[in-house]
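Researcher: Batch entry, complex prediction.
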Amino acid sequence: MIRLKNVYKEYRNGTHALNGLSLEIQDGEFVFLVGPSGSGKSTVIKVLTGEVIPTEGQVMVNGFSLVNIAEWQIPYLRRTLGIVFQDFRLIDKKTVYDNMVFAMRAVGASPREIKKRIGYVLKLVGLENKASRLPDELSGGEQQRVAIARALLNNPSTIIADEPTGNLDPARSLEIMTLLKRINELGTTVLVVTHERDLVNRFSERVVMLEKGRVIGDGVGKYGVNVHA
Amino acid sequence: MSMRKYNTHDIRYFFTEGLSSMFTHGFMSFAAIGITVACLLIMGTFSLIAVNADATLKKLEQENQVLAFVDESLTEAQARTLESKLLKVDNVASVEFISREEAKDAFASEYEDDPLFQNLDPAIFRNRFVVNLEDLSLMRETKTALEQVPGIADVNAYVELSDGFITLRNIAAVISMTLIAVLFLVSVFIIANTIKLTFFDRREEIAIMKMVGATDSFIRWPFVCEGFLMGILAALIAFFLQWGLYGLITKGVSGNDVFSIIQIVPFSHMWAPVALIFVCAGIVIGVGGSVSAIRQYLKV
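Model: Structure tokens for the complex:
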């Protein structure tokens, strides 16, 4: 579960990125986090992943309190999260399979666990036949599916996707969002940060709108139409 | 960086990654290993010079006794009474009285092929004491003290020779310590820079590792292993080069009459401590370099 209560974040340069933001996401929910540039979306992601510590307020993510989290606990928090970025962040010189191995080795998984889990997640994202390909040999949509597969490797309870379709055409974007929805249906909480109104509106899911570091709308419906404060 | 939570798969992973990085930055690794080899070789060479100078000094202490000649006016019986006075002199370990007759016999036996020296009059020799010293470095002071003993006419000691070896040993120690300190720092600096290059090369991988939840120590260990492997490799190369170099030098020295006084310690008597010191120094330099780089550049 994710819970942010009255969260403020002021950066050293004086920017107030979050201004009393409160938000609660239950386990198993699918949530779109939307808003214009500078609304605080990226800061929310950074707060949730332990990259920045809020100036004020309470943040709980999957049982970790992020306001007074010890530095050594942050890796363990991140193991409960699967993070997907717009630019995929795959290692170019490693094959799809080796990218997966790399991510699992980093958290100390055994060779047996690695083999078993990679086969499962590649099948889940429909890339079981592309395991030996290099990222450059795949389309943008396929690369993002690899990134999603990698995010799923450590069996996280929450997937956080930061503009996952930002580099993709509409057809591939829909494909990726459908995949994330399928993962959600398997029980994983999914939080998608996006500004693609049309894409959000194709799904009847909870939409949280941010502006100036505050939630200005939260509800199930179309982005910008039915979402109410 | 606790090791307790890591299993054999992790340790194998750390070393594989370290080895792979070492080859990825071949030129820098070569430079880092090269300078470490140079450091260890210079350290080893000067240390071995010091060891041999020390062995030669010990040999001189054992073999080159000081001769204290008794005044010719004293009879043999009177001369023998000086033994207790000589033993009281500082730094004198033992004394042995040699009579004129015994001195003549010893001299004649050295030239037994020459009839000219076989029938010498013992009166041309002096009664004497062979004096063994406790510390050869105090030979000059002891010689002066022995000359002060009433009844002793002259003292014969290889003061210049022993002084020369002591100076050589001290110079070797000072030069080696200075060079070791300088080259140690240079080696650590170059290894740290090699590791720094690895960080830059792997910064995306490090970001991904952090993102998926790798602990700081898990991220750091491959870099420590890279430094460790470079240090070990440098130590092994330096050891074999040192062995070859020592063999060449000792061959040259032992075949030369000028250096016949030098006591050469065979490498086979020293290889184990030399190898141990090289490996330890290599590890300290390698791991020291990587830890220094981690502290400066890897903020994870």
